[in-house]
Amino acid sequence: MRSMSTARRYRHTYRDYLALEKASPLKLEFSDGEIFAMAGGTPEHGALAMQLVKLIAATLDSGCTVYSSDVKVRVVATDLATYPDLSIVCGTAERAADDPNAITNPRYVVEVTSPSSEEYDRGDKLSQYKQLPSLQAALLVSHRQHQVTVVSRGSDGWRAQDLRPGERVDLPGGLSFDVAALYAVIDAP
Prior knowledge:
By secondary structure, the protein is α+β, with helices and mostly antiparallel strands. It has helices at 14-23, 43-57, 118-122, 124-129, 179-187; strands at residues 28-31, 34-37, 64-67, 72-75, 80-82, 86-90, 95-96, 99-103, 108-112, 137-141, 148-154, 157-163, 168-171, 175-178. β13 and β14 form a beta hairpin. α2 runs antiparallel to α5.
């Protein structure tokens, strides 16, 4: 009997992933040759994502489009295909050459964390998002506390800033909102 440490994992191609995704009722993520089913979110998770859309829809520049978690983002440099909670493209959305249902040029991505995804969202997934040449910032909306982490690209690299109630997220392109207003949707009775 082989030990688990020497067992070989099966590596899928992106073509395998697309075929499986087409036949699956679940959203699937592709990362480094592995395919993962994406878990559903809690009502609070969904409420935070939709509240963010409400807050930023009126402030975004007219050439920017907000996409829901139904739109796949493809990071070709790292071979990732994933469904962020929100992605924002300013200008024309570019499609992946190997996947016409995936966009490759978000200016912003938003992940609402959960107990099962937080480590991945803040670690490996964020690292892969940073490989998108178009990405200006990733927003990580905490499920544990009222805090939004903005990881933004600057002339000297990437920097992270934690913002809490009483503070505002203000990014180029009109992405602007009050952190307290974001979390008000889950604080309401």
